[in-house]
Design brief:
By secondary structure, the chain is an alpha/beta fold. About 25% of the residues lie in helices and about 15% in strands. Helix 8 crosses helix 16 (about 455-470). Mean pLDDT is about 95; it is low at about 1-20. Its EC number is 3.2.1.51.
């Protein structure tokens, strides 16, 4: 558990306010029932809690004032300890962190160091699949299909019927993966250069992609009728790729409240509740008989309702089950910090302890979270969604982006050109090179179709990435940053969701990496210039304390390279471009004296 004193020390560093202690209302922060029972409780009997006038107070659902919540930004709680995501940090029950040296406090997690395998891998592929890919219409489909007049609502109504009659739960069986060949896909990802593979374990939409012991809405029961995560894990490990899982379920409490609405007078079915309002008893005779939609969508609740303790425990139980069943190397949360207060903190500690136990005492685990303050950067591997940094980071970090939308969007494939509307191989490789030069690992999501395949334009992007890495991987894998990350006239924009600024980089921009022995330095030119390249940072009179260069070569060719190191810079004449993939970036290898 998080001690009050420890929480008080952490909170100011994070900008959190620790309110004075108060007597919590009876029932709050207690586990009197499990989540299935909470979901089965009639709506008028459910008790929720909100923060009002600086106090936690019980409330019940008021249908007249209800409106759907969104991403969820709950306040700090007026409790004796700290809180996060509207949940206290101290758990209502003990023993959740497992056996080992890690406890559910940031001070304890700071013992962590990112493992060598992760720092060497540099490049991973992510398969971001869930039933939301069934319409092939892009991101956040499950939430937005319940937002009247949205693109997704119109698509749903035209192709399946109004969401009061055919909702998200009814898309779940259509996520069939009938043509899915995990071994073949993993081989393709490995050929593209990936040393790490990540699979979506669950999204905000609530379906677990494994044979979940704590959640009946899962891929073993519905849709593919397969343990998707188990099949991915077996395929990845068979081909010596490290395996990671991504968990997005914590946002389900807020994100899916749209499913509890109804059309207004201008809709297809005015006043008829959407299917998020259905209960398990209404499933008699339906395909979903025995399954409670409330467990999929989360119960309808007041806009400011704090996550119920049973929801937090269910999140913990499901994620721990995922860890226990599939023993991933990497665990990613789509959240700022570890989600849901005591739930996420204990899972973080449990994952580290579990990994030590299954790896013979050697720490090989990676936890990814977002918006990590400097004080906590050593405790995890910070993730920058669709983002980059403008400096070499002191600890290992991760940049992730998607080839298109996170969930499959056929409109991107239908756009003209060799790569349609997808991220070009050039930009993907420049993104990777920039990330690696700054002590990061690059993850590229390749969304799949509902039958379990990827399309030909996605394959074309992967093939080009793989062709470049087969020539130049020496400058990427098992490297570390040099004194500076690079030079050049163009700059990227730092931060999450700023990754498109990578498109500004060109052949006058250079990034550096070096091998771990520091005997070879690599200058990666973000293009293939025909004129002489001048690397000013390697001039003997530069301010970088540049090493003396003994020999210069270009990866992938035996051609003799004309070069000279002067006070003003290292001057290199590249040979004629010899492979189409190398047009994206040239890797100059410098053997140091």
């Amino acid at each position: 558990m998080v001690a009050v004193g420890a929480a008080a020390k952490i909170a100011p560093a994070l900008g959190w306010n620790v309110a004075s202690a108060q007597t919590m209302p009876q029932g709050f922060h207690t586990l009197s029932q499990d989540y299935a029972d909470f979901c089965a409780t009639p709506p008028e009997k459910r008790v929720f809690y909100v923060v009002a006038d600086g106090k936690i107070v019980p409330v019940r659902l008021d249908e007249k004032t209800w409106k759907p919540s969104a991403w969820g930004k709950p306040p700090s709680l007026p409790t004796p300890g700290d809180s996060w995501d509207g949940v206290p940090m101290d758990a209502p029950i003990s023993g959740l962190a497992g056996e080992g040296p890690y406890q559910a406090t940031w001070d304890s997690l700071s013992q962590y160091d990112a493992p060598e395998w992760y720092r060497d891998a540099k490049f991973g592929i992510w398969a971001h699949w869930s039933p939301q890919c069934v319409p092939e219409a892009g991101d956040w489909y499950a939430r937005n299909m319940y937002t009247q007049n949205s693109r997704e609502y119109r698509y749903q109504s035209q192709h399946y019927g109004p969401p009061s009659r055919f909702g998200y739960k009814d898309l779940c069986p259509q996520w069939t993966l009938l043509n899915w060949e995990p071994d073949a896909l993993i081989q393709r990802y490995k050929d593209a250069g990936a040393r790490l593979f990540l699979a979506l374990a669950n999204h905000h939409d609530g379906l677990d992609a494994w044979n979940s012991k704590f959640h009946p809405w899962n891929s073993a029961n519905i849709g593919p009728h397969r343990d998707v995560i188990g099949a991915w894990a077996a395929a990845a490990r068979k081909q010596d790729l490290r395996f990671g899982v991504t968990v997005h379920q914590a946002r389900n409490w807020w994100w899916f409240q749209t499913a509890h609405g109804a059309d207004d007078a201008s809709g297809a079915a005015p006043g008829v509740p959407y299917d998020g309002n259905k209960t398990v008893t209404q499933g008699q005779g339906e395909w979903w008989q025995g399954y409670d939609p409330q467990q999929l969508y989360a119960p309808k609740h007041p806009f400011e309702a704090l996550p119920d303790a049973s929801f937090v425990k269910n999140f913990y139980d499901r994620t721990r089950d995922l860890i226990d069943q599939h023993d991933p190397d990497l665990l990613y949360f789509d959240n700022s910090l570890l989600p849901l207060g005591w739930g996420g903190m204990n899972i973080g500690a449990y994952f580290y302890n579990h990994n030590l136990k299954t790896r013979g005492g050697k720490m090989e685990a990676v936890v990814n979270i977002k918006e990590v303050p400097d004080r906590l950067a050593k405790s995890v591997v910070a993730d920058y969604e669709r983002g980059l940094t403008n400096q070499i980071m002191p600890y290992a970090w991760q940049s992730e982006t998607c080839i298109g939308d996170w969930h499959y969007n056929r409109a991107l494939y239908d756009k003209p050109g060799e790569y349609g509307g997808y991220l070009s191989p050039r930009d993907a490789l420049h993104w990777m090179i920039d990330t690696v030069s700054k002590n990061g690992t690059f993850i590229l999501n390749v969304p799949g179709k509902p039958d379990g395949t990827i399309d030909s334009k996605e394959m074309a992007v992967l093939d080009q990435i793989g062709a470049w890495i087969r020539i130049n991987g020496e400058a990427i894998y098992a490297t570390r940053p040099w004194t500076i990350y690079g030079e050049g006239p163009d700059t990227i924009t730092s931060g999450s969701f700023q990754g498109n600024s990578i498109a500004k980089l060109g052949p006058k921009d250079i990034r550096f990496t070096q091998n771990k022995a520091k005997t070879n330095l690599y200058a990666l030119i973000l293009g293939w210039p025909t004129e002489e390249v001048v690397v000013s940072s390697l001039g003997t009179a530069s301010g970088t304390n540049a090493p003396k260069v003994a020999n210069v070569s270009v990866l992938g060719t035996d051609a003799k390279i004309k070069w000279r190191q002067t006070p003003q810079g290292l001057r290199v004449q590249l040979p004629p471009q010899f492979h189409s993939a190398n047009n994206h970036a040239a890797a100059i290898k410098l053997s140091l004296a």
